[in-house]
Write a structure and sequence with these properties.
By secondary structure, the protein is an alpha+beta fold. It contains nine helices and 31 strands. The protein is elongated and about 95 Å long.
Length: about 600
């Protein structure tokens, strides 16, 4: 609201000399001195002012109630005595969160007051009681959200006398949310969510010039917190801390003259949660038309999930920095601003320096002894997720970067320590596949026994450009009635050119499809896990339902262990970075889509063993 802060411009002693009209004789002995000139607009935090349709009072001394709505701090309502009140009528019921009051001479005396609300104007409920701050600024008092038409401010004198004077008053709705539109120069890479946990999240993005950005954030659209990147650069990863599990947070990035529109995300739910919703797909990073069709369906409200698992070959053909920008972050920008992506590397990422650009672009958990983001685990509500680097296991990594032995030892320790009722493992090379590449026997024989021993419920992979679901498998065969088998799903249909099956469907294969592009939608609800293949035409092609009886445990114990686990989890979070001006090889022109069979052809790699 505009407040001119104009006091009357005529001194009492010079009425006749100036020709001013005589004002009403002030009854308040604390009548203020004259102040001439305009002042700054009145600003009040945490208040979105509502329009007052009518204002009344229990009485006045000639300074009428309407003065509190004229945007002039030089006028006021005032009345003498304990318990006098000013009442605002909003015309209809509104959602209220507080009241802003500019007290007359508020820097000289503290006022004792009560704020009450009513829907009918006769029955009032107290919303706030206290003393005003000893300053001249407009002051906002907040209270729990409520629906009301009338707001009454009852004043019980002040620390100087029993006069009650209010210059301006407004009822407040929640602060107007920030704009959802981006403004200023466009960021070369829009924000994307990484390592979202119960109490923290990383917002990553890039700027065209060097600066030290700030991210404002808070629950819903109330952005009450902010954090600076801390370093100047063009690559940025800003960590938001002190969040609460399973809550929705909004955020805005302010960087180098750019301001992104408000977006929101959900933090990981606590261990006591019984539900989770995630999506998964592999072999999608083409920047092409089929990736766009899959993304269009995945981004609809029906299938918008809490997190996305990226199953490898996230940036064709070679996993360069430019290809990550053109084939992942640009076509998926809208989704990745609101849905965190937890990725695993594919063989195409390994083409360039053993997936170093992949590691530079991702900010993933680093909770293995090597502190490596190549393989990791995390929890989301009732689900424990295990991400493995199958490239390392099949011999594509040098020993200084990753070894099968170290990864396997870590995986067993991680699975043994898990306390969540559901376990999902994901990596790139499939343990069971009848597609072009076939089954990767190293992955099957090295990790299959661990999955069986520690009760992994579902294994998700990519690599073959098709969809295939195995029957529950145990060892090298379909599980018998007395064995707890594990279903293996190939979801390599995210956008790269599909490849036909060259052989007939084997007996262990429950369903396979090389015609439909799509992604996997997975919901967990108590003792039921439901996985559906959603096609690019928004149809359900396959459904898998798993059921189990969950062990009962004390809710208090679950909450306590969940908080302890969250604290431990944060200790292994990926440090924000890099934030630098690292020079990248510039592409000679626009990076074309990898939208042909040739552009997504696989490099040479070791044969299955």
């Amino acid at each position: 609201m505009r407040n001119r802060l104009l006091w009357p411009t005529c001194l009492l002693g010079v009425w006749l000399a100036t020709g001013c009209e005589s004002p009403p004789t002030p009854s308040d002995p604390a009548f203020p001195p004259v102040i001439e000139g305009d002042a700054e607009d009145l600003t009040a935090s945490n208040c979105n002012p509502l329009v007052t349709r009518a204002v009344t009072a229990s009485g006045d001394d000639g300074n009428v109630p309407a003065n509190t709505q004229d945007d002039d701090l030089g006028t006021r309502w005032s009345a003498q005595g304990t318990g006098v009140w000013l009442q605002m009528d909003l015309g209809s019921a509104q959602t209220l969160t507080g009241t802003t009051i500019a007290w007359h001479r508020g820097n000289e005396r503290q006022n004792h007051f009560v704020v009450s609300t009513s829907t009918d104007g006769s029955t009032f409920t107290q919303a706030y009681a206290g003393d005003s701050a000893l300053n001249a600024a407009a002051q906002t008092v907040t209270f729990s959200s409520r629906s009301a038409r009338y707001v009454r401010i009852t004043v019980n004198g002040n620390t100087v006398n029993d006069w009650n004077s209010i210059a301006e008053a407004r009822a407040c709705a929640a602060s107007a949310p920030p704009s959802s539109s981006d403004s200023g120069p466009a960021l070369p890479r829009l924000p994307y969510l990484q390592s979202v946990k119960q109490t923290s999240a990383i917002i990553a993005f890039r700027t065209a010039s060097t600066c030290n950005p700030t991210v404002r954030y808070g629950e819903g659209s109330s952005l009450t917190s902010s954090v600076s990147a801390g370093l100047s650069g063009t690559r940025h990863a800003v960590k938001l801390s002190d969040l609460s599990p399973g809550r929705t947070y909004g955020y805005v990035v302010e960087a180098c003259g750019s301001k992104t529109g408000l977006r929101g995300f959900q933090t990981a739910t606590a261990s006591s949660a019984t539900k989770a919703h995630f999506t998964a797909m592999g072999d999608f990073g083409t920047g092409g038309s089929m990736q766009a069709k899959v993304m269009a369906v995945m981004s609809t409200p029906q299938w918008r999930s809490e997190l996305l698992l990226a199953l490898g070959d996230n940036a064709y053909p070679d996993g360069t920095d430019a290809e990550f920008q053109a084939h992942l972050f640009t076509p998926m920008a809208g989704l990745l601003r609101e849905v965190p992506m937890f990725a695993t590397p594919g063989n195409h990422e390994y083409v360039t320096n053993q997936a170093q650009p992949y590691l530079d672009n991702m900010y993933l958990p680093a909770n293995n002894p090597q502190g490596s983001e190549r393989y990791y685990s995390f929890d989301w509500g009732p689900v424990h997720f295990l991400s493995l680097d199958s490239n390392c296991a099949v011999g594509l990594a040098s020993t200084d970067r990753c070894t099968l032995a170290a990864q396997k030892a870590w995986a067993e320790a991680d699975l043994a320590a898990n306390t969540r009722p559901w376990v999902v493992a994901f990596f790139h090379h499939p343990s069971w596949s009848s597609g072009e590449h076939g089954s990767q026997l190293t992955m099957r024989r090295q990790f299959g026994p661990l999955f069986e021993k520690y009760g992994v419920d579902l294994v998700l992979t990519g690599h073959d450009h098709d969809y295939e679901r195995s029957k529950p498998m145990y060892g090298d065969n379909v599980a018998s009635g007395s064995q707890r088998g594990v279903p293996y799903l190939v979801v390599g249909s995210g956008g790269a050119t599909l490849r036909p099956f060259a052989t007939s469907q084997p007996a262990w294969s429950a369903l396979r499809d090389s015609q439909a592009y799509g992604f996997l939608d997975v919901t967990v609800d108590g003792g039921t896990l439901t996985a559906r293949l959603i096609t690019s035409s928004n149809t359900v092609r396959d459904t898998l339902v798993l059921k189990k009886t969950l062990a009962k445990s004390s809710a208090q114990g679950v909450r306590a262990s969940g908080l302890a686990a969250a604290d431990a989890e944060e200790a292994y979070d990926t440090p924000p970075g890099p934030t630098d001006d690292r020079a990248e090889p510039k592409p000679r022109g626009p990076v074309p889509p990898a939208d042909t069979p040739e552009s997504v052809a696989d490099p040479e790699e070791p044969l299955p063993q």
